[in-house]
TrEMBL record:
Residues 9-34 form the Flagellar basal body rod protein N-terminal domain. The keyword Magnesium does not apply. This is Flagellar basal-body rod protein FlgC. The gene is flgC. The basal body constitutes a major portion of the flagellar organelle and consists of four rings (L,P,S, and M) mounted on a central rod. The rod consists of about 26 subunits of FlgG in the distal portion, and FlgB, FlgC and FlgF are thought to build up the proximal portion of the rod with about 6 subunits each.
Amino acid sequence: MSFLNTLSISGSGMTAQRLRLDVTANNIANIETTRTEDGGPYRRKMVILEAKEPSFQKVFENTLHEQQVYTEGKGVRVSAVIEDETELKPVYDPEHPDADAEGYVMMPNIDLVKETADAMAATQAYQANITAFNATKLMAQKALEIGR
């Protein structure tokens, strides 16, 4: 595996985790939003990540059955940002301008604890990719020093 390919894989991980953190921050910012352009309350967004080919499973199967050597990975990519379809939270607040006839306001389906945990996980994954990137960079520097 080339150094540039390894750096590219780490870079794809950093890009994906940065988007994941952006989406989480947007969810937190809209935790009280009861009106959107589409009408109704804000719905929680989730990032769907997928491995670029070859997948781990494919490499694992090839290694077991065909004794092929793993040559290159491609990293990760964001396949979609989707809306969470879980139920909205009804909150009794007859004074709210978006309250229905019975006094209930439909609030976003966002759980602050879950969003905080997602933000922490994205931050740790981002940091792990930086560590891998820096380790690869150090290996390349040491390889260049051998030639001196």
